[in-house]
Amino acid sequence: xxxxxxxxxxxxxxxTYTQAQAFSHQTTWNQPKxxxxxxxxxxxxxxxxxxxxxxxxxxLAAQFALDNLKQxxxxxxxxFIQNYRQTKDRVNADxxxxxxxxxxxxxxxxxxxxxxxxxxxxxxxxxxxxxxxxYGLLGIIILTIVLSLNTGTYLFLNSTWTGLAIVALLxxxxxxxxxxxxxxxxxxxxxxxxxxxxxxxxRALKRxxxxxxxxxxxxxxxxxxxxxxxxxxxxxxxxxxxSVYVEQMxxxxxxxxxxxxxxxxTIKAQIGYFPPHDTHDMRHLLYVYTAFLDGRATTWQxxxxxxxxxxxxxxxQQTLVAxxxxxxxxxxxxxxxxxxxxxxxxxxxxxxxNGLGQNIREQTQTINEWNSIQTSIMDYQTELxxxxxxxxxxxx
Length: 396
Fold this sequence. Notes:
Elements: H1 10-24, H2 38-46, H3 49-103, H4 105-113, H5 131-150, H6 152-158, H7 160-185, H8 193-219, H9 225-232, H10 234-271, H11 276-279, H12 282-293, H13 300-310, H14 320-325, H15 329-351, H16 356-390
Helix pairs in contact: 1-10, 3-10, 3-12, 3-15, 3-16, 5-7, 6-7, 10-15, 10-16, 12-13
Transmembrane segments: 135-157, 163-184
Keywords: Membrane, Transmembrane, Transmembrane helix
C-alpha cells in the first residue's frame, strides 16, 4: 500500500455521508430571495428586447445547468453509496463463505463425493402408523402356511433342528410384529423400525462429520476469527472500500461545489431583472422566452400576458430540464449553448483558484490507487475461494 494514502475509518464513512446530506440541502441549491420595487418594474419596462432576452437566456441557462448538476450529483452520490454497500455486503458474504469452507472440510468432501449440496434429511415418522406391523403379520402368516404345506414335513423328517429353528424364527417374527402393532397404537417412537434406523444412521453421519470437522478446526486453529480475517484480507478489503467511498464522495462534492457556486452566482445576478411572481416557476420563464424568440411578443408585458392567456402554466407538469429538452430545437440549442458557455467560464475561473486544480488531480489519483488496491484484494479473495474448493478434503 502506498504510504501517502490515508485509510478511511468507519467514522470517516459516517462523517462523509453526513456531509453529503448537508451539502444536498444547502440553500445554495434553492432560488435566491430578492426584493422587487417599483424601480425594478420601470427598469424592466424600459429594457430593450435584446437585453431582455439576453438576461432571460442567461437566467434560464444557469438554472438549467444547476438542475442538471443537481440531478447528476444526486445520481452519482447514490451510485457511490450503493457501490459501497454492495461491496461491503460482498466482502462479508465472501468471508462467511471462506469461514465455512475452512471450518468444514469433511462436510465439503462429503458433498463432492456424493455430488450434492446438503446432508440427508431425516424422514418424518408417523409413530401411529400400524401398516408396517399389519403387513408384517400378514406376511408371517402367509409364509408359515406356505412352509407348512410345501416343506414342513420334509424339514422335520430330514433335519429336525432346522425345522425347529425356522419355527422359532417365525414365532419370534410374529411376536415382534405384534409388539410393533401395540407400539404403534401407543405412538411409541420405535414402532417404525426401518425409518427409525434410517434416521439413526443420518444422525450418526451428521455427528461423525461434525466431530471430524470440529477436531480439524481445533487442531489447525480454524476457529480463530482474527487469523481467518488476516488470511482473507478482510480488514484490508473493507478499508479499501471505505477509502474509495470517502475519496469518491469528497471529489464529487469538491467538483460539484465549484459549479454550484458559479451557477448560483449567475442566477443571483440575472434573476433580479424579473418579477418574483414570474421567476417562481422557471418553466413559465421558458415559455416567455419562447414567445420572444417566436416573435409573438416584443415586450415583457406582451409576453407574460400572452402566456397567461394561453393558460400554459396550468399544463406544465415537467421539470425545467424536461421542458427545455422537449422544446423546439432552436430553444433547446439556445439554452444549451448558453449553459455550456456559463459552465466553461466557471471552469476557467475555478481552476485559476490556487490549489483547486491540484486538489482535484490528487483526489482522482487517490481514488485510482484505492480502486487498484481494492481490485487486487478482490482478485486475491476470489482465487482463495477457488483454491479452497479445489483442495476439498486435502487437509483431512
